[in-house]
Amino acid sequence: MAMEQIFKISKEFKQEVFDKVKQLVDVAGHEYFSYLGQKTQMEAAN
């Protein structure tokens, strides 16, 4: 397998994961994903 193929497959996998994560929503009473988003934004701001 060539290096170009490895990077292409890796990039496609990453995009697939991001697309699936975007579909996830919080269950009422369990704001886990909202918490993760807020935490990430706070860490990026620091």
Please, how many helices?
Answer: 2
Specify the biggest β-sheet. none
Shape estimate: elongated
Q: From the alpha-carbon coordinates, what is the Rg to the nearest angstrom?
A: 15 Å
How far the N terminus sits from the C terminus, by CA atoms, comes to 40 Å
Classify the helix fraction into a percent range. Answer: over 70%
Global structural class: mainly alpha
Which residue ranges are poorly predicted, with pLDDT under 50 across at least 5 consecutive positions?
A: none
Which percent range describes the beta-strand content?
under 5%
E-strand count? 0
Mean of all residue-level pLDDT scores: 83
Order of SSEs: HH
Which terms would index this structure?
46 residues; mainly alpha; 76% helix
Question: Summary?
Answer:
The protein has 46 residues and is mostly helical.
Write up what this structure looks like.
By secondary structure, this protein is mostly helical. 76% of the residues lie in helices and 0% in strands. It has helices at residues 3-23, 32-45. The protein starts with a helix and ends with a helix.
